[in-house]
Amino acid sequence: MIDPTARIHPQALVDEGAQIGARTRVWAFAHVLPGAILGADCNVCDHTFVEGGVRVGDRVTLKCGVYLWDGVTAEDDVFIGPAAVFTNDRRPRSKQYPAAFPATLLCRGVSVGGGAVILPGLRLGAWAMIGAGAVVTRDIADHALVLGNPARRTGWVCRCGERLTPSSTGACACPCGRAYQLAPDGESVQEVPS
User: Fold this and answer.
1) Which residues, other chains included, contact 148 with Cβ-Cβ below 8 Å and sequence gap of 6+?
2) Burial 19-52 (b: 16+ CB within 10 A, else e)
3) If we measure between CA atoms, which residue out of 165, 6, 12, 75 comes closest to residue 179?
4) CA-to-CA distance for 152 and 147, rounded, in angstroms?
5) Prior bond to 150 cis, omega within 30?
6) Could you report the per-residue pLDDT of 13-58, keeping only the tens digit for each?
7) What was the pLDDT predicted at 138?
8) Before 34, cis peptide (omega within 30)?
9) pTM score of the predicted model
10) Ranges under pLDDT 50 in the chain
11) Which three-class secondary structure string do you get for the chain?
């Protein structure tokens, strides 16, 4: 079902049985398979592919050259940069298919930089930022900034994307006005309600 306010480019291919939400735009040469669900206000750029078992929330951006395979769920406000790579088979072999694909969850607000590689069955935490070209091999904490191959946490980021600098007490203030507190073990950061 395609919402009547969605905009589908004439050269996009949206198969019958796909669900496209209100005001979502699907651009040229994108292909959305039956069973795929795209929420409202999404932007699906040129040369993207969305397999049938994929679930995409509202206000998600899929830049050019992104392929989402069965098992991937992207919650609201996710950004996936150009040519980011997702995998869904831990031990791929030609013509051998697993009984089920591992679930990969991109939590609300996560940003995946261009050319990053995400291995299957991982959780990318809310508002985390994955640097361009990073290779993610394990779960990522909420608000974590990860870079490199394999991806390692190098800091923390605010919802707005600015890097957070904890004080000696673990308090973090962002110029946007949000406040955070680093856990005593340094392994997580929590937003402090205003």
Assistant:
1) 131, 134, 135, 154
2) bbbebbbbbeebbbbebbbbbbbbbbbbbbbbbe
3) 165
4) 6
5) yes
6) 999 999 999 999 999 999 999 999 999 999 999 999 999 999 999 9
7) 97
8) no
9) 0.94
10) none
11) CECCCCEECCCCEECCCCEECCCCEECCCCEECCCCEECCCCEECCCCEECCCCEECCCCEECCCCEECCCEEECCCCEECCCCEECCCCCCECCECCCCCCCEEECCCCEECCCCEECCCCEECCCCEECCCCEECCCECCCEEEECCCCEEEEEECCCCCEECCCCCCEEECCCCCEEEECCCCCCEEEECC
Dig out the tokens for 140 from the structure.
């990522």
Tokens of 176: 């946007």
Distance CA 81, CA 114 (A): 4
Instruction: State the amino acid at position 108 in one-letter form.
Output: R
